[in-house]
Specification:
The complex is a heterotrimer of chains A (about 150), B (about 290) and C (about 775). By secondary structure, chain B is α+β, with helices and mostly antiparallel strands. Chain B contains 12 helices and 14 strands. In chain B, a hairpin with a 2-residue loop joins β6 and β7. The N and C termini of chain B lie far apart (about 50 Å). In chain C, the strands form 8 sheets. A 7-stranded mixed sheet of chain C has the order 3-7-1-14-11-12-13. In chain C, strands 9-17-16-15-10 form a 5-stranded mixed sheet, sandwiched between helices. A 4-stranded mixed sheet of chain C has the order 18-28-29-30, with helices on both faces. The longest helix of chain C has 28 residues. Chain C has 3 domains: about 150 residues, Aldehyde Oxidoreductase, domain 4; about 160 residues, Aldehyde Oxidoreductase, domain 3 (Alpha-Beta Complex), CATH 3.90.1170.50; about 325 residues, Aldehyde Oxidoreductase, domain 4 (2-Layer Sandwich), CATH 3.30.365. In chain C, a hairpin with a 5-residue loop joins β11 and β12. By secondary structure, chain C is of the alpha+beta class. Chains in contact: A-B, A-C, B-C. Chains A and C meet through α3, α4, α5 and α6 of A and α1 and α15 of C.
Chain lengths: ~150, ~290, ~775
């Protein structure tokens, strides 16, 4: 076990981890942050997406010990001050159904928007192409992202 | 999700420290860069190391730079960094193109080019671009540094020339001295993320030289001296591209697996070859320098 | 007609905020404290084998291991319609990956480590991996005890064969019908197995406490059915229904996979061996593929006779279903299709044989569409082919045969009111059926395809739904139902119905996924029946509450009850403009009289719905006589696709789909179902493909090689159309439509492919590879 410290949603956290512990399991089962989900455990589905140092990554493919000294944002961190415009647009459009892919999808789109405030439809699709959704057919999610990024 | 095996973890601060660790642990150590392949391997329990050597503390390896007429891509350079590098776009456009087709953005933000050629899974995306660019793999160990042409690097599926106590520090791509243009084609089951069932990389030089590499149609990716020689003798034009396409049947020997039949792989390799060649010809025409 | 304020409006889903903020809690998000135990499954590496011995001694040595359980610990069988399934394999393994044992440990790591150390000794048996093989004389019997299994009375297993059920339908005079035909087309269509691919795994946590209380938290479409099956299976332990409590948090997608009972019973059973400790069983992606349910595969032999004007004279449909190792639920897919395999057409002479066949492959079971996607692939391909042969426009061909209200179904009941003809016209118009779009390049071919669909809920005739409606002090409402919101928006729709009757805004209605102890009975959230069935129960509960409100107001204020109405949470009177009794003033505390006494008390509505006209009592040789299906939902769809002739890759340019949902209680959610269902359908026809090796082992149980679409793989354009021909017994005329949206997609795409390339694909999936190889094959034929 090694004590690691990292910033999680703006708060400095410390936790003891073994080298074989995966970031997703540490976030969910040791720290209790539950918005990152497990949907494949192989990096294919994107449900476990978190933002690491500003980039969307797969927390199922990262060893928890690697994030010592790094900065992580999960959906819980995004919603601290109420809904973001993207979350509001998704809500208004009934964009999600079962909602299981939503945390990962929203974080991927948020990352896209932070580096590219007015993405094309292709860029929007590309940014969430690693987040599998079985319910929605994606179009309502794409429409919500388009709506928010066309404004302003 | 849980990995039922235990192992140690070290994050060396210097390359020398990393090499000492590798020297001590040898094949019982695994290098951890992006970790996207490694985490999956460990979950499946394929190869269980005793120690992970996390090289992400070695900032020097996180650079894309031009040095001594070559483009250097450090061992910590991710596919996302490649996608955002003007240097790569300028000097090895085909690598930029291939990088955009690696998995999904969430994986590209973590997975590295060097990791890709070290995992050396037959369907890797970086091999064909590096092969047509005559890239060189640079390794380091306590015994010194080695330079291995990427053409010699791959030994078998998931097997390379890296030594037990060695690590790859970077790959270098010699800057072509004349106008050139490349193209990468990847056979996927749909537009979204997929592993290549076959891939083709071509690089066309202003002087008519052409380099061609095929991936995922054999245990290791390979250049095609046969086709390159054919173009060298005959020049590149639409008719010759078609003739060269017909040579492919005698050059590659794809297999049938869960992703595709050998027949479709063969057919698609030919289609992709033609499309890549035409794209490269068009791109070369538009090149300014 | 009275204007509706809530029903028919695109309300924002009531669970939406939870879901966009990550607050929504799914089963594996629940906390159980440090005493939680973890179970890991030991799987059998044979498709068919006898278990000789199990040695867990090495596994027990791993630190942290509590116990190892095997089939011997639970000699009980269970099943929804037929009790042919076991908690753990008993003496026989019937599919590759079947659960043989489980290791229970303090940590997931220890459980996983120990599970690898359990030694099992097998004697392999010959295996049967295709339905036609299983029917052969002398084929090995997968269930030698079939004749002893309990099953519902409308199943007809054939003892000492691999046929678990044969649904036989005979209507009219088929021989004569074919004799009258001007053209007969006979062909065989194949549809393989598919996986649901809900993104959330199956998960169950169970605790059997020292008082004998069994609580199961599960990702579930069927909390009450699970309670029922757990109680029945575990009855030998002295467990009764009221000892079992199933709590169902949010579900990360179901599509049928979380209906009935599969892995949840493993958690329930293990809990009885580790009394006092909660124990978690969490599936993984691989097991999602091969050890829950798979969609059944089918080989369908279809023969249709038509007059030269396109009218159908006779139809014969033989369906041989690859139902897998256990068919406790899947046999009802076979049954449902048997009853409906004439499709949405008027067919006077029909014979259908639908065979449920055991194979040594993973258990087949419910999957969105419940068999209809499978038979419609052949039927709607056939209709297109016959139209083209006769020189009739394929849309016109369908118009001439499409079923109308009052027509007689295959089993002799009357077809319900429906908007099939409106749907056909609306789709043809929107897709511009008579225009020919041009391809985008020389390598490209463009094509159009059309398809109809229908589907009835497949459920026992005594399926019921119920609702409790409780007012709170501020006139907010707790609506207690036990349907599950799987993402389709069930809870929102229920709130809309209650809001409409009680004039209470949706924001003041709380309705959540159920706890079987607190919420009243619901059969299951399957069959696209809950909007209709549970919607009726909610409506009745709301009417019951309203009746109590009006009665109280009438007797306390001396106004005639029939003049009272509700508006904006206030009781008003049609004849007394100033009369206004705000609900919040009395729905809990009652109404005070002049003498200081109070009348009334908490307003609580109750509503129950059961379709009392349904019956499965029919002649087993013909299926005539009963009323097994309550109604059908119908619709039509069309697509324009473009194909890269060199690679075989298909891009779907445009899809139009019209579905007659009777009444769209929430049009936004209806459109969401259409958009999502179309993509799931596209995925089954173009991308998804299960591969098995010679051992019966699935080779691609992962998203790396079982491809479901990403955001880059969607149609360029989807146009959802809503048709509303009310269902007489539906709430506000509504009937279900969730599953239906994917039904027309596979044949529609196959028809478009033929239109583009002249190649008829008769087996699914139709991958780029298959199209490409068929094209090159065709080229070769032409060269000869």
């Amino acid at each position: 076990m090694k004590k690691i410290s990292f910033t999680l949603n703006g708060e400095l956290r410390q936790v003891d981890v073994a080298p074989n512990e995966i970031l997703l399991e540490v976030l969910r089962y040791k720290i209790g942050v539950k918005s990152p989900k497990c949907g494949c455990d192989t990096g294919d589905c994107g449900a476990c997406t978190v933002i690491l140092n500003g980039k969307a990554v797969r927390s199922c493919l990262i060893f928890a010990i690697e994030i010592n000294g790094q900065e992580i944002v999960t959906l819980e961190g995004l919603s601290k001050d109420g809904l973001t415009p993207l979350q509001k647009a998704l809500l208004d459009r009934n964009a999600f159904q079962c909602g299981y892919c939503a945390p990962g999808m929203i974080l991927s789109a948020t990352c896209l928007m932070s580096g590219n405030p007015h993405p094309s439809e292709e860029e929007i699709k590309e940014s969430i192409a690693g987040n599998l959704c079985r319910c929605t057919g994606y179009q309502p999610v794409i429409d919500a992202i388009s709506e928010v990024t066309k404004k302003h | 999700m849980a990995i039922p095996f235990e192992f140690g973890y070290e994050k060396p601060a210097t390359i020398a420290d990393a090499l000492h660790l590798l020297d001590k642990w040898g094949r019982n150590a695994r290098i951890l860069a992006g970790g996207t392949d490694l985490a999956n391997e460990l979950k499946q329990g394929f190869r269980v190391p005793e120690l992970l050597v996390d090289i992400k503390g070695l900032d020097a390896l996180e650079k894309i730079k031009v040095l001594d007429d070559a483009l250097h891509i450090g061992a910590l350079v991710t596919f996302d960094m490649v996608r955002n590098s003007q240097l790569v776009r300028d000097h090895a456009y085909i690598l930029y193109e291939a990088a955009g087709l690696v998995a999904s953005s969430g994986v590209r933000n973590r997975a590295t080019v060097v990791g890709n050629i070290c995992s050396a899974v037959a369907c890797m995306d970086s091999a064909a671009p590096l092969l047509v660019h005559d890239a060189v793999v640079h390794t380091a160990s306590l015994e010194g540094e080695r330079e291995v042409p990427v053409q010699d690097w791959f030994v078998d599926n998931r097997k390379t020339l890296v030594g037990e106590k060695e690590m790859v520090s970077h790959v270098s791509i010699p800057l072509p001295k004349i106008k050139h243009a490349g193209a990468y084609q990847k056979m996927m089951r749909y537009t979204g993320e997929d592993l290549a069932a076959a891939n083709v990389g071509v690089l066309l030089m202003e002087d008519g030289a052409c380099r061609v590499a095929f991936g995922s149609v054999g245990p290791i990716p390979r250049r095609s001296p046969e086709i390159e020689l054919f173009f060298e003798k005959n020049g590149v034009n639409a008719r010759h591209i078609d003739q060269a396409k017909d040579m492919i049947g005698g050059i590659i020997s794809p297999i049938t697996d869960v992703r595709a039949t050998k027949e479709y792989r063969m057919h698609m390799t030919k289609v992709m070859f033609v499309r890549a060649m035409h794209a490269a010809v068009e791109r070369l025409k538009k090149q300014k320098i | 007609m009275e204007e509706l304020k809530f029903v028919g409006h695109p309300a924002v889903r009531i669970d939406g905020k939870e879901k966009v903020t990550g607050a929504a809690v799914y089963t594996d998000d629940l906390e159980f404290g440090p005493d939680l135990l973890y179970a890991e499954i030991v799987e059998g590496p044979h498709a068919h084998a006898m278990i000789r011995a199990i040695d867990a001694s090495e596994a027990m040595k791993v630190p942290g291991v509590i116990c190892v359980v095997t089939g011997k610990d639970f000699p009980y069988n269970f099943g929804l319609y037929m009790k042919d399934r076991f908690i753990f394999a008993q003496d026989r393994v019937r599919f590759f990956g079947e659960q043989i044992a489980a290791v229970v440990a303090r940590t997931p790591q220890a459980a996983k480590k120990a599970a690898r150390l359990v030694q099992v000794n097998y004697s392999p048996l010959p295996k049967v991996v295709s339905p036609l093989e299983a029917l052969r004389e002398g084929a090995d019997l997968i269930h030698p005890d079939l004749k002893h299994y309990e099953h519902v009375p409308w199943f007809f297993p054939k003892p000492d064969t691999n046929i678990a059920h044969h649904r036989k339908v005979r209507k009219g005079n088929v021989e004569q019908g074919f004799a009258e035909a001007d053209y007969i087309l006979e062909d065989t269509y194949e549809v393989p197995r598919y996986a649901h691919c809900a993104i959330e795994y199956h998960a169950a946590v169970a605790k059997y406490d020292h008082s004998g209380r069994l609580t199961v938290w599960a990702s579930s479409q069927s909390p009450h059915t699970q309670r029922n099956l757990f109680a029945i299976a575990l009855a030998p332990l002295g467990i009764r229904h009221n000892d079992v409590r199933v709590i169902a948090p949010h579900v990360g997608g179901g599509f049928g996979s979380k209906a009935g009972v599969t892995m949840e019973i493993i958690a329930a059973a293990i809990a009885t061996k580790v009394k006092g400790h909660p124990v978690k069983v969490l599936w993984n992606r691989e097991r999602e593929f091969y050890n829950t349910y798979q969609r059944l595969g089918v080989v369908a032999k279809l023969k249709i006779g038509v007059k030269s004007d396109g009218r159908i004279t006779a139809l014969h449909h033989s369906l041989f279903w690859d139902a897998g190792a256990y068919v406790e639920y899947g046999a009802n897919v076979v049954n449902a299709v048997g009853l409906s395999a004439i499709g949405p057409y008027r067919v006077d002479n029909a014979s259908i044989d639908s065979y449920c066949i055991y194979t040594n492959l993973p258990p087949g079971g419910p999957y969105r569409g419940f068999g209809y996607s499978e038979f419609l692939f052949g039927l709607e391909s056939h209709m297109e082919r016959m139209a083209k042969h006769l020189g009739i426009d394929p849309v016109e061909m369908r118009r001439r045969n499409a079923i109308r209200a009052g027509d007689i179904t295959a089993y002799g009941a009357k077809m319900n009111p429906n908007g099939l003809h409106q749907a056909i016209d609306a789709v043809a118009k929107e897709i511009k059926w008579h225009e020919t779009p041009s391809p985008s390049g020389p390598d490209m071919a463009i094509g159009k395809g059309f398809s109809l669909f229908w589907k009835a809920p497949a459920m026992p005739p005594n399926t019921s739904s119920s609702c409790f409606l409780k007012f709170n002090e501020d006139a907010s409402i707790n609506l207690l139902v036990s349907g599950m919101d799987l993402g389709q928006g069930f809870l929102t729709v229920m709130a809309q119905i209650a809001a409409e009757i009680l004039s209470v805004p949706i924001s003041k209605i709380r309705t959540e996924n159920p706890d079987t102890d607190r919420n009243p009975y619901e059969w299951q959230t399957v069959a696209s029946h809950v909007t209709w069935g549970c919607g009726n129960a909610v409506k009745r509960a709301a009417l019951d509450a309203r009746e109590q409100i009006f009665s109280l107001a009438a007797r306390t204020h001396d106004v005639p009850k029939d003049l009272l109405y509700l508006e904006d949470e206030v009781v008003k009177c049609k004849r007394r403009p100033g009369f206004a009794l705000p609900l919040k003033d009395f729905v809990i505390h009652g109404i005070q009289m002049e003498d200081g006494t109070f009348k009334g008390g908490p307003i609580m509505g109750r509503g129950v719905f059961m379709p009392e006209y349904a019956s499965t009592k029919a002649d087993p040789e013909t299926s005539q006589g009963g009323h097994p299906n309550v109604h059908y939902t119908v619709g039509a769809a069309a697509a324009i696709i473009e194909i890269d002739k060199q690679t075989g890759r298909v891009q779907v340019k445009k899809v139009v789909e019209a579905v007659d949902c009777g009444k769209a209680i929430n049009p936004s959610l209806v459109k969401g179902q259409i958009t999502g269902g179309i993509l799931q359908g596209i995925s089954t026809v173009l991308y998804e493909e299960m591969k098995f090796d010679h051992r019966g082992k699935m080779l691609n149980p992962n998203f790396t090689d079982y491809k479901i679409p990403t955001a880059l793989d969607i149609p360029d354009e989807v146009i959802p159309l809503i048709i509303e021909v009310p269902e007489p017994d539906g709430p506000y005329g509504a009937r279900g439509m969730g599953e239906h949206t994917m039904l027309p997609v596979a044949p529609m795409i196959a028809n478009a492919i033929e239109d583009a390339l002249g190649i008829r694909m008769k087996s699914m999936p139709i991958t780029a590879e298959k199209i490409c190889l068929a094209m090159t094959g065709l080229k070769k034929q032409q060269e000869k």
